[in-house]
Amino acid sequence: MADLIIRPAAEADLPAIGSVTVEAYRADGYVGDHDDYATLLADSAARFRDAELLVAQDEGGAVLGSVTVVHPGTPYAEISRPGEVEFRMLSVSAAARGRGVGEALVRAVIDRARAAGATHVVLSSSEKMLAAHRLYERMGFTRLPDRDWSPLPGIDLRAYAYVLPL
After folding, report:
1. Among residues 41, 54, 106, 118, which is most buried (max CB within 10 A)?
2. Orientation of helix 130-138 relative to helix 101-115, angle to 10°
3. Is 39 helix (H, G, I), strand (E, B) or coil?
4. DSSP annotation string for 79-115
């Protein structure tokens, strides 16, 4: 996608990132209007402070999506171990779906992990996020069933890993 720009988020992007993230998860039925996870997704300022937040925008500056890049032992880490980079809260606005935004954001995470000397990129994804699973598998991620987990009863997360070539 020629008009797509992936870059570190700036403070001015935070309201749009929070809005797009909640909208993306809500559109797919993963959060409700007053869901605790929706509140967490909307809090892009915390992710900006405690992790690396990447934004995808078009040439006109509209925020199309974002992803949170996480290192082990930091506040947003869930399944990462030393030597791994994790990503969370990948989101693409409904209007930008099918344009390669999600893949471009994941590729940016892989590039960041490679630059950091990581051996793997890992993530957790709801068992219901089938389109995301297809993207990850197409990109070379494999399942890590030994790291599957449930943050709350009835919410089952599947773990995936991408091995970074040496």
Report:
1. 41
2. 50
3. helix
4. S--TTEEEEEEEEE-GGGTTSSHHHHHHHHHHHHHHH
Beta-carbon neighbour count of residue 2 at 10 Å?
4
pLDDT tens, residue by residue, 41-66: 999 999 999 999 999 999 999 999 99
22-35 CB burial, b ≥16 within 10 A, e <16:
bbbbbebebbeeee
Overall pTM > 0.90: yes
Place of tokens 């403070």: 11
Pick the CATH number of 4-163 from 3.30.930.10, 3.40.630.30, 1.10.287.990, 1.25.40.340: 3.40.630.30
* Joined tokens for residue 14: 């935070």
Number of H helices, E strands in the chain: 5, 8
> Which two structure tokens, joined as six digits, stand for 149?
């987990």
> Tokens 């990503």 appear where?
87
